[in-house]
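Subject: sequence -> structure tokens, single chain

Hey, anyone have a minute? Need the predicted structure for the following. Not urgent.
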Amino acid sequence: MGDTPQGYYEEIYEQLRRRVGKATWEKLVFGFIYYQSVLQRQQEEIFIRTKPLIDWMKLRKFLLYGFSDAASLEHKKSDPKSAYHLTQKVIQEELDRVFFKAGEKAVPVVIIAQS
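Reply:
Had a minute. Here:
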């Protein structure tokens, strides 16, 4: 939620890699999902347009970026071109990538989600 950087996962990635050890890590397929790009452009546009009207910019940016994700994902959810469907596509593409990278190996799947 919010203005999330693309490399948001890097810290937990490195911590997990170090903790599980090289032998186990080499058996894992790590994936990450970044769908902020579906939402951020419109959020940034709204922020820029409303900037001259607002005194408390940090608060406004927090509210816009933080709470508009949920509203954006629910708005026109049934429309195939909606933010909801676009984010689901991003999630599906990463799951497909991990699935194909794992190949025929029977591997455990671990999903760490942040909302």
